[in-house]
């Protein structure tokens, strides 16, 4: 029986682990196949407070893990297949471990960026291919950038990237955009944004130094062309990693866990959510870490309320 189990080891889960371990809650943290979350695919992290010269994403996650271990957090590797949230204590079936039982559960499984699945894309993540403009835009100062997507997020990222880039080309496979009118008007009014609509991305082209462009097909003519750029930002959305919950936790229409405003509480007492799995707006390492602190403190307070509840005779 654990007082608390944390599922996921991104900045949210590791921060929760640090706080719970320091509170002598002896948390168990279940690591999935990609410990550290999306930051392990990031090179330089320059916007996390406390690192004036920046820090490599994997190094930051490793430091946070060591900090949690220092205070007594336990780490085990496994894949959570299912959670029984029908009654407390909660039961988890974990591939490679078996059944685990816990008084509180913190879900910090994150959200996975969607990729196109075209040649050269995965090979160049961190070498010019990115899914986060606010994370990586700074590295493309005075360079040409491509943004792929047609929704609000894509246009918002395109607008943001014009702060750094000499030119931003927005590529979308259709002639019409899905973005709201106000976002379209804002983007079309930006002189640094050019348009490559009705074009299907075919391949990310790169050299030994990194990305050099994007090969696309003109859907009207069928002709292929190379759009030159130093960076390709894929902005076609994210999907939260909540499938293992089997609908027991309340989510929004896109599958993100709904938490009580100002807390990490879900619809089930004793289950908390933090990080990108419940964040549809910010998706930053620092906001994830902050929400991990909230989840740990909420879980600790919940345990205390159980220990001080009156016993029926």
UniProtKB/TrEMBL annotation:
<dbReference type="InterPro" id="IPR050097">
    <property type="entry name" value="Ferredoxin-NADP_redctase_2"/>
</dbReference>
<feature type="domain" description="FAD/NAD(P)-binding">
    <location>
        <begin position="3"/>
        <end position="292"/>
    </location>
</feature>
<dbReference type="Pfam" id="PF07992">
    <property type="entry name" value="Pyr_redox_2"/>
</dbReference>
<keyword id="KW-0521">NADP</keyword>
<protein>
    <recommendedName>
        <fullName>Thioredoxin reductase</fullName>
        <ecNumber>1.8.1.9</ecNumber>
    </recommendedName>
</protein>
<keyword id="KW-0676">Redox-active center</keyword>
<keyword id="KW-0560">Oxidoreductase</keyword>
<comment type="similarity">
    <text>Belongs to the class-II pyridine nucleotide-disulfide oxidoreductase family.</text>
</comment>
<keyword id="KW-0274">FAD</keyword>
<keyword id="KW-1015">Disulfide bond</keyword>
<dbReference type="InterPro" id="IPR023753">
    <property type="entry name" value="FAD/NAD-binding_dom"/>
</dbReference>
<dbReference type="InterPro" id="IPR008255">
    <property type="entry name" value="Pyr_nucl-diS_OxRdtase_2_AS"/>
</dbReference>
<keyword id="KW-0285">Flavoprotein</keyword>
<dbReference type="GO" id="GO:0004791">
    <property type="term" value="F:thioredoxin-disulfide reductase (NADPH) activity"/>
</dbReference>
<dbReference type="InterPro" id="IPR005982">
    <property type="entry name" value="Thioredox_Rdtase"/>
</dbReference>
<comment type="subunit">
    <text>Homodimer.</text>
</comment>
<dbReference type="InterPro" id="IPR036188">
    <property type="entry name" value="FAD/NAD-bd_sf"/>
</dbReference>
């Amino acid at each position: 029986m654990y007082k608390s189990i944390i599922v996921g080891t991104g900045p949210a889960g590791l921060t929760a682990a640090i706080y719970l371990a320091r509170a002598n809650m002896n948390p168990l943290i279940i690591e999935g196949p990609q410990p550290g979350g999306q930051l392990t695919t990031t090179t330089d992290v320059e916007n996390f407070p406390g690192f004036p010269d920046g820090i490599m994403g994997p190094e930051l996650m490793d430091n946070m893990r060591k900090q949690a271990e220092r205070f007594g957090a336990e780490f085990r590797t496994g894949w959570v297949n299912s959670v029984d949230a029908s009654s407390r204590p909660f039961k988890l079936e974990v591939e490679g471990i078996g059944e685990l039982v816990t008084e509180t559960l913190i879900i910090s499984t994150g959200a996975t960026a969607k990729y196109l699945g075209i040649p050269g894309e995965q090979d160049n993540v961190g070498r010019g291919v990115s899914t986060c403009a606010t994370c990586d835009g700074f590295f493309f100062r005075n360079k040409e950038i491509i943004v792929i997507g047609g929704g609000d997020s894509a246009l918002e990222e395109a607008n943001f990237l014009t702060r750094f880039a000499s030119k931003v080309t927005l590529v979308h496979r259709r002639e019409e955009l899905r973005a709201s009118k106000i976002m379209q008007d804002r983007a079309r009014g930006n002189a640094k944004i050019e348009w490559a609509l009705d074009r299907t991305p075919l391949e990310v082209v790169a050299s030994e130094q990194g990305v050099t462009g994007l090969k696309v097909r003109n859907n009207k003519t069928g002709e292929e062309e190379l759009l030159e750029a130093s960076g390709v930002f894929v902005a076609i959305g994210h999907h939260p990693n909540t499938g293992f919950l089997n609908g027991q936790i309340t989510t929004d229409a896109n599958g993100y866990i709904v938490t009580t405003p100002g807390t990490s509480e879900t619809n089930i007492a004793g289950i908390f959510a933090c990080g990108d799995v419940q964040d549809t707006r910010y998706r930053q390492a620092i906001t994830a870490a902050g929400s991990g602190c909230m989840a740990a403190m909420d879980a600790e307070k919940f345990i205390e309320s159980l220990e001080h509840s009156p016993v029926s005779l």
